[in-house]
Amino acid sequence: MAATGEIRRSYWRRNQRALAPWLFIAPGAFMFVIYVVIPIFRSVTISFYKWDGMGPKVWIGLSNYAELWGDPAFVVSLKNNFIWLLLYLLAVPAGLFMAIFLNQTVRGIRVYKSLFFFPFVISQVVVGLMFSWFYAPGFGLFYKLTQMLSGTGIAILADERFATYGIIAAGLWPQIAYCMILYLTGLNNVSPDQIEAARLDGAKGWKMLWYVIIPQLRPATFIAAVVTVIGALRSFDLVSIMTQGGPYGSTRVLSYYMYETALSEYGYRMGYGAAIAVVLFLIMMLFISGFIWKMYRDETER
Amino acid sequence: MFPRPIAQVSPIARFSYKLALPVVLVLWLLPFLGVAVTSLKPAADLAQGNYFGWPSHLAFGNYADVFRNSPIAHYILNSFKVTIPTVIGAVALSCMIGFALAVYNFRFNLLIFFIFVAGNFVPFQILMVPVRDLTLKLGLYNTITGLALFHISFQTGFCTLFMRNFIKSLPPELIEAARVEGVTEIQIFWHVVLPLMRPAIAALSVLVFTFIWNDYFWATVLTTGPNTQPVTAGLYTLNGQWVAAWQLVSAGSIVAAMPPVLMFFAMQRHFIAGLTLGAVK
Q1: Which residues constitute the domain of residue B40?
Q2: Would you say the C-alpha torsion A106, A108, A112, A114 has a positive or negative sign?
Q3: Which chain A residue has its CA at the smallest distance from B110's CA?
Q4: N or C: which end of chain B has fewer CB within 10 A?
Q5: Number of folded domains in chain B?
């Protein structure tokens, strides 16, 4: 017995550097495969079936995808997702200007920075409620403001022309704070020598910003753009809280519409919901693969 | 420094900057301030149309009402029950994976790393139907365990990205020196690397706490009812019940937002260090 124990120990001793990484990876990888990797493939499979979540699945091939094209609710959701994506990206320059505004050393500036940042820490549910109050028809601050300016108040969230933009504005609030903090860290690391050199060459203001500062902020800009794109495509909480997709479905986005078809009173159409999720996934993949490609280049360059 | 330090510009510009700071701050936080003030208004104020002015008196009773007449205390407890195990689980798992991916050269190292990174950016929605189905089959639907297990798994992706890059930045000589001494790999992890990871662990813990506390999507997909739902989902339900009782909605919102906000102000340095990792080279 002692001998086998000895052999086993020496086997471990000899091979521990080959075995250790797998041991360390195993528990986390197990969970990740079960809850993330396999579900991605299962979703793709489910999207080829008609399924109510409980009963038998019926193979219907590409019918779910074919149905998507003729489904006006899907088209509206897709269009809204692009509006989200486009307008959400405004958070990147807005965050940059806010960071520049705050990148000073006056008394109390650290408190200012954290207060400017803190919308990001608040749950989107609460952000949604805050903006609902802000927009509330009749007494909301924003409603009163439009009433003062144009004579008639605009109930943003009840008006299908504006509702999506109202929700996006709510989403931009924490997102700008996030980009701001990324840029504040970036600005901290801009080389002072280069700025001095550029100043001696007579660069200032916009020229300085464009030719000297922004190029040095590349890493911050990259991260800010990545998290903003992901945030825009994932948007669900605000739509659910503020309008539930209404009025008349005009504020639906893919993630919300997917939830509606698969899990709400509109019926448990798991297959159709999965098909919507796959479309969203493919859009996201375009961005993720670009991100991974850049990381891969950075890793192999080193 | 960019922009030019305010100390070097004219006194007028300096003065107007100092004046602009609080003004911009108030405008920026207007939605929050509005709700904070509303949460302290007696219901009578709102009934009389006093939506913007100061409350006629500070009605802290709104907060008492929220706790007394709604299960919000229960929702908050649920949030803690989901959030704390998730933080511990995800950080522990990712410490180990991060160590393995940063320290060892083996086949598929980069591939495994990129699978974790990619999984982290996947839209949740593609996981929704299968994860809900899996949770149902495991008998964990509408349980705190079911929700926490999913969160641990999903957050492991993000945490791994973070931990691996952090460990990679530690000096490799430390590990080499320990190996020369004949220290086993597990001891290297436990006695050499783990103590150095404290700042990363702190930063990640605060971040994951905030993410999970604020999660709403999975809370609605995997739980239902006040016995299991965390406060984000609970607040949505309460909002439906408190139609037009804005003083209650506001007080509830503030209560629900508090824990991560306090956490942020208490551990700001770690929080920002975690968030901005990668924003500088």
Answers
A1: 6-66
A2: positive
A3: A296
A4: C
A5: 2
Pair B139, B117 in one domain:
yes
Angle formed by the axes of helices B198-214 and B72-103, to 10°? 140
Residue A262 contacts B where some CB pair is shorter than 8 Å: yes
d(CA B78, CA B72) in angstroms, rounded, equals 10
* Record: contact A209-B2, CB cut-off 8 A: yes
Domain A67-301 -> CATH class: mainly alpha
**Nearest Cβ partner of B232 from A125, A183, A276?**
A125
Q: For chain B, positions 156-185, list CB contacts with chain A under 8 A.
A: 156-157, 160, 184-185
Q: What does the pLDDT look like over A258-296, one tens digit per residue?
A: 998 888 766 688 899 999 999 999 998 888 788 888 878
The verdict on whether omega for the bond into residue A247 sits within 30 degrees of 0, i.e. cis, is: yes
CATH of the domain at B241: 1.10.3720.10
Is there a contact between B219 and B230 (Cβ–Cβ < 8 Å)?
yes
- CATH 1.10.3720.10: which residues of chain A? 67-301
Contact A35 B185 (CB under 8 A): no
ipTM, 2 dp = 0.89
Across the interface, which of A32, A117, A241 has its CB nearest the CB of B153? A32
Q: What pLDDT, in 10s, does the model give residues B50-105?
A: 666 777 778 888 898 889 888 899 999 999 999 999 999 999 999 999 999 999 98
